[in-house]
Structures are given as structure tokens and as C-alpha cells.
Design brief:
- It is a single chain.
- The protein has about 280 residues and is of the alpha/beta class.
- The chain has 11 helices and 8 strands.
- The chain has a single domain, classed as Metal-dependent hydrolases (TIM Barrel).
- Helix 5 links the parallel strand 5 and strand 6.
- The longest helix has 18 residues.
- The protein is globular.
Length: about 280
């Protein structure tokens, strides 16, 4: 029997939560069948760390400025990103511009400033011939407005929008990322979309160490009592995938194969790395 192979299209292995045991984390993921992780940057300060980790573990990476980092970012950071994309253009492990996007959930962020960085990074993605990894939080319509003009593909990470918005992302050539949220029975809209959208639209992700699946989640009361919040890891992806496969009524092996093909379609440089 062939081993089931999975790809985690969004994983922050450079996060401080993994600083003490990143090699063990990646080894556990590989043992679970996660053969590849895509590691997005969030600001120029971690461009080199995601690149180095991708080369260390045989994974891939993306370079970009996260919307939550735009408050302290300047236009010189966009120049730094442009230079980094040019410098690494022949690196096969550079697969996207990301994590970029808009976040209208976190209070205190300047929406106009976020849009400036988003538009400029879409333009950089187009200039450098790369897809994007999009942060989507209460911002789908604005993201879509600029995507229509930019003409770039990629992945809408941690998708949490409506069926209509999902359809428009797909129409524009993007895939939609699903992960830990589908494991919660109360996530009715996400689970419905995950079960009903065309299989060709879906990719899998963990967003590790964030968005833990239900089996790692601790309530506020449990945390107050001293129980630590479970750290999400890429090795949790196969179990998340099995939940999603169950929602769709297909075998996990079929979901793994389809989502891997979808990831390669969304991020074309992946195919050569996975060959």
C-alpha cells in the first residue's frame, strides 16, 4: 500500500514557538506523511529565516509583508521585498509572494495603509511572475477588488468567507486554504463550504503554530486553570485532512492526492520540488 502524502500550504516554522525543537517538529510531520511545507514570511526581518528553513528541510517559502505588520512597515520595506524577490528569482524554493492581504478584524489597524501595502505587493507578484498567499480576515470583498485588477493567482489562506466570495476567488484562479477550523462542529459555514465546494478549489494548511484543531484547543477556563494551549504543528495536517475527507464523503487518500495537485496548480514551482 502506498503511503499517503500531504502538503501543508501554510506553516510558520520560523515562529518563536518552534525555536527549541523545529527539527523534531518537521520530523514528526514527515513521519505523519507531510512531505512538504510552504513557509510564508511576514516581514523583511524573517525573509532569511524562512528561506533558510525551507532549504534545511527541503520545503519552500514565500516572501511578503503581513497586513498585521503594516503599522510599522515603510515603503523602504517594499523596496527590500522587491530586491529580495529579484535576488532569489532563480531559487526554485521561492514559490510565492506572501503572506500578504488585509485584516479588518484586529482593531487599530489603518485600513488605507493596509491597502497600500496590499496593492503594491500584488504589483510585485505580477512583476516577478509569482502567485500570492493571501491573508483573508473580514476582508474578502476588498481583496477581490484588487485581485481582479492584478491578475495573479495563488491561495486564499484560512478562508472564512461566504459561498459567493469563495466562488469569486475560484473564478479568479485561486485555491482556498482549509485547516484546523473545519475540525470544529460549530464552524457550520466553513464545514459546509469545505464539503460543497469543487474539490479542485481546496488546499490544506495548518497555519502552525496557530489555528489549532479541536483536539488541541483549550478553553479560557482551562487555560486559567493552568492547562497550556495546544501548539499546532504541521504533523496534525493528516488528521485535519481526514476530517475534511469525511465531510466530503471521500477517502483521505483521495483528498491528499487532490489537494496536492491543487497546491501545485496554485503554486506552479511546487511541482518540480515534489517530483
Amino acid at each position: 500500500m502506498h503511503r499517503v502524502k500531504w502538503i501543508d500550504t501554510h506553516c510558520h516554522l520560523d515562529a518563536s514557538e518552534f525555536a527549541g525543537d523545529v527539527a523534531a517538529v518537521r520530523e514528526r510531520a514527515l513521519a505523519a506523511g507531510v512531505v512538504h511545507c510552504v513557509l510564508p514570511a511576514v516581514a523583511p526581518g524573517n525573509f532569511e529565516s524562512v528561506r533558510a528553513l525551507a532549504h534545511r528541510f527541503g520545503d519552500s517559502y514565500a516572501l511578503g509583508i503581513h497586513p498585521l505588520c503594516t503599522a510599522t512597515a515603510g515603503d523602504e520595506d517594499l523596496v527590500t521585498l522587491d530586491h529580495a524577490l529579484r535576488a532569489q528569482r532563480d531559487d526554485p524554493r521561492l514559490v510565492a509572494v506572501g503572506e500578504i492581504g488585509l485584516d479588518y478584524f484586529v482593531p487599530g489597524l489603518d485600513a488605507a495603509r493596509q491597502e497600500h501595502f496590499y496593492r503594491e505587493q500584488l504589483a510585485l507578484a505580477r512583476r516577478h511572475g509569482l502567485p500570492v498567499l493571501l491573508h483573508v480576515r473580514r476582508s474578502a470583498d476588498q481583496l477581490l477588488k484588487h485581485l481582479r485588477r492584478a491578475g495573479v493567482g495563488g491561495i486564499a489562506h484560512a478562508f472564512n468567507g461566504s459561498a459567493q466570495q469563495a466562488g469569486e476567488f475560484v473564478r479568479l484562479g485561486l485555491r482556498l486554504g482549509f485547516g484546523g477550523t473545519v475540525t470544529y462542529e460549530r464552524s457550520l459555514q466553513i464545514r459546509r463550504l469545505a464539503g460543497e465546494l469543487p474539490l479542485s478549489a481546496l488546499v490544506l494548511e495548518t497555519d502552525a503554530p496557530d489555528i489549532p484543531p479541536h483536539w488541541l484547543y483549550m478553553t479560557a477556563e482551562q487555560r486559567a486553570a493552568g492547562a497550556p494551549q495546544g501548539r499546532n504543528e504541521p504533523g496534525e495536517l493528516p488528521r485535519m485532512g481526514s476530517v475534511l475527507a469525511g465531510l466530503r464523503g471521500i477517502a483521505p487518500q483521495a483528498l491528499a492526492a487532490a489537494t496536492m495537485a491543487n497546491a501545485c496548480a496554485a503554486l506552479p514551482r511546487l511541482a518540480a520540488l515534489l517530483a
